[in-house]
Amino acid sequence: MQQIEGHETDAKRKRTVHELETVVIRFSGDSGDGMQLTGGEFTKASALAGNDLSTFPDYPSEIRAPSGTVAGVSGFQVQFSSHRVYTPGDEPDVLVAFNPAALKANLADVKRGGTLILNESAFTPQNIQRAGYTTNPIEDGALQNYRVYSVPVSRLTQLALADTQLSVKEILRSTNMWALGLMFWMFSRPIEVEITAINKKFAKKPHIADANIKAFKAGYNYGETAELFDANYTVPAARIRPGTYRNITGNAATAIGMVTAAKLAELPLFVGSYPITPATDILQELAHHKHHGVVTHQAEDEIAGICSAIGGAYGGSLAMTNTSGPGMALKSEALGLAVILEIPLVIVNVQRGGPSTGLPTKTEQSDLFQALYGRHGEAPMPVIAARSPGDCFHAAIEASRIAIKYMTPVILLTDGFIANGSEPWRLPEPGTLTPFPAKFRTDPQDFAAYRRDPETLARDWVKPGTPGLEHRIGGLEKHVLTGEVSYDPQNHEKMSHLRAEKVAKIVAEIPPTHVEGPEGGLLLLSWGGTWGAVAQAQKQLATEGKRVAHVHLRWMNPLPPDLGAVLKRFKKVVVCELNLGQLSHVVRAEYLLHVEQINKIQGKPFKVSDVVEGARPLAESL
Amino acid sequence: MTTASPLVPLTRKDFVSPQEVKWCPGCGDYSILAQVQRTMPDLGVPKENIVFVSGIGCSSRFPYYMATYGVHSIHGRAPAIATGLKLARPELKVFVVTGDGDALSIGGNHIIHAMRRNIELTVLMFNNRIYGLTKGQVSPTSELGKVTKSTPLGSIDKPFEPAALVLGAGATFVARVADNEVALMQTIIKRASEHKGVAFVEILQNCPVFNDGAYDALTGKEVKAERQIVIQHGKPLLFKGGTMGIRINKSFMPEVVEVGEGEGKVPVSEIVVHDETAESPALAQMLAHMGPPNFPLPVGILRAVRTETLTELQLDQVSKAVTAKGNGIIEELWRQGDTWTVAATQSGEGNGSADEEELGTGD
Fold it and tell me: Looking at the DSSP assignment, which residues form a beta bridge with residue A18?
């Protein structure tokens, strides 16, 4: 927490209110403690207070690992600020730990001198031992470098709810709301909106709503009355572009981006999907939107997910499937079919740690090679990568537009970090998105299934049901014009070139590469969900006086047509990515250019400091 | 310009594509193709609304030979592709053409799920009990002990009984017919095509090259009256010219009996009467499991039950959603959840840096 100006005195309490620029809070507890909800509610309050923000939930892949163990710790981090926020923050200023395991799992991340709010009631000998401590960290001096507030949250929650008819178990479920109340006080948030939200959430269980409100208020009042805290804080509203905002996760943005794309294309949306972490939310979100012309089909497996989408696309829908790495592997044969059929399809891969089951709930960017090359045969596909939660909306629309215009499957890469992370998203002004109505061929005159548009090389999209255009297509190589089966060697070579050329033509859609910062020095090159951390790192290094610029890629295939020339204007290029160097490999191969690498492969997003510290010596050695 | 289907009745020729048919001479597939082409005009469905979807294998070349819309897809996946197509376009008539390897081995998962969903697809499975396209390996319907190129010492994998498998998966229409029974095949294809729900037709198909004579013991002229029992709704299960029949014994097991009056014979009133519409699949399952050496092989329609279909349920959900929420308006979708508005005055009125101007756009 950077204190940016002097404090004012709270006349009533003789307590100070410090104004802060930026705060990072992490809520952490057992996976059953309601951390995602607590973090989400706090985030909403911050958004309504006008802060810019970015969040990152971090949860274990086990739904309920043994309680009290480090394996079962679930966390939710939010950075909120009166300035622009690019990431959920490197180091929490405040850690709210619901038990010893949560403290153990997160302490190393907390800023030195940061604030720890600990649920003292959960620091029982048994929990202390389960977390792997030998002595109570609150008492043994292990936390002396932090400001520790040890508060018996569970006990105080029980006291606050003593006069309700609820069981102890039910009462303890409100512990998180007590802590939320305390944080509302600490950061001067108005409580009315939250009370309304609780009432709405538990509209069918008013006694639970009452209990949660009581616990929430008790936590708030505790901050105000207890002599424990000498100050509370306020983070002023950020200067934000006018408009209407909501907080959005990448997965929600992808889902509504696809619905929007379908409307812009004047098509129904067909979703063939199979549940897989961290992509499932997209299917779940879309399943609510049948009245928007969305057909969702939870298929029997990943293969059927994409195959049903191919069927939907053949039938004339904007079709999509969504998955993560292992599911992508299963879909790869069908991707080849979509390539040779030359039909529009959007495949969303929410990347996670691999290989195999890997790290299902953790983020990574290690599916770039798979997206670019993971098919048999010469099977080129456009690949586009979203850079932030809100950007998933625009990337989904772009992927759909290209799929239809060029009659091709398109891969949209997001990742666990931006898919589950959230940020304020400005709603598009009605009418500002350009429609791209799909055209279907209906004229039987001179029809040939693989006759191409000379500009885009796209073939005609023909819906079954169109009289006079009955024809057969399939996975066997096709005649260059008629689409009938052809084993002719020259024809195969011609078709292979045409399929590649068609995808290469998409460069016409890519705007000139934007360079942030001065040319001639070090260039940070990033792609996908690492945008925020790398953008922030560039700013920090520039502040230090380093000659550092940043280029971020959205189009991974084809690459921007000017990228080679741009890269050559720098003394040194360093590729920053969450893998062992996949884009680095592509850039070297494509431009015969030596590039440096900053890589991280821990299932976690970049911290700004990871990039800053990796790039600083390179910038200094220019 | 679009030209609607002519109002003059279609004929078999209207369904013959210009593609040269490339199956081996004598293949059972020729007969199936001919019966399907003959049946199509009777369905009353405009030609442009018919789609044939297939996977991989000899049988899966079928769509190329039909002058309708068609997709020759990838191995085993035809039911999945057809499911997507039918959900997206419920008004189309969608056929799946597949084989024993395509449907029951690599595509087994898709077949059973198509069955349980009762999606309106007509599945024609050509069962030649061998992998033909790859030149003669054991298939999931090859009999135990079968010597093939991949099982030189005989197959040790027990085969599926296709009809029993799909009945177990909830199929609402199941039929079986041999490739040389032209009239019965036409009847069955028509009934299957008109069935509201998923229809599965197993066609016993001879592969003259890699499994020739696989069905001779069932389909040969001299033996078929004894080895096949043609089942008909509402009729007793009789065969061999009505002299033999199927009775259920006290252990609820079928047994073959001689029918008639007199010593050792059983009156026809004791013979099981076939009911293809029975809600329980028990009778159909019993028939599916019957067969040589102790029983004749039942052919005909084992089950034909009308229950709600996937597309009906889907359309119902859509219409209820539209009734409840109205036709979706995209701006409302964007707004769902909590929103807040930043007014121009709050935004620093141009005092913000370019960076701040960009803030929160997410684009």
Answer: A233
